[in-house]
Amino acid sequence: MNVSPTAEPPVCRIMNYGKYKYAQAKKEKESKKKQKVINIKEIRMTPNIEEHDLAVKAKNASKFLEDGDRVKVVVRFRGRELGHMDAGRVVLMQFAEMTSEYSTIDKLPIVEGKNMTMFLAPKK
Predict the structure, then answer these.
(1) Which of 9, 13, 63, 123 is the most exposed, fewest CB within 10 Å of its CB?
(2) Which strand (E) or helix (H) includes residue 107?
């Protein structure tokens, strides 16, 4: 029942609750159809990755970006690699350059513990 709080005397409308719930569900389903779900795909690598392996990962990232997903690129450092963070940044920027046809850099490379991450967003 809907009640009009400002009316004098108070007025209510009797309605079919099942029909009301059905209409609400239909509206909700219709609004979900228009939404685009954006997933975040993650690609992991090390700072001493080979050129061909990097190209393969860039190709996979390009597929994700074409589908409209964001890509999180992570370079993982282990042991002595932690002393060479600049090598990881070079790898990430090279990766961004390889996928520049399909992406723009959303977040520049940042260090979080033993990982360096960068986000790529699909071009509009």
Answers:
(1) 9
(2) strand 103-112
Check residue 14 and give its pLDDT: 85
CA torsion angle 61 63 66 72 (round to 10): -20
Residue 75: closest CA among 103, 44, 49: 44
- Asked, as a colleague might, if the bond just before 122 is cis with ω within 30 of 0, I would say no
Q: Is the dihedral of CA 98, 100, 101, 107 positive or negative?
A: positive
Q: Which residue has the tokens 């940044």?
A: 89
Q: What is the pTM of this model?
A: 0.68
The residue with tokens 């997933």 is 39
Q: pLDDT digits over 43-60, tens only? A: 999 999 999 999 999 999
pLDDT above 80 for 10: no
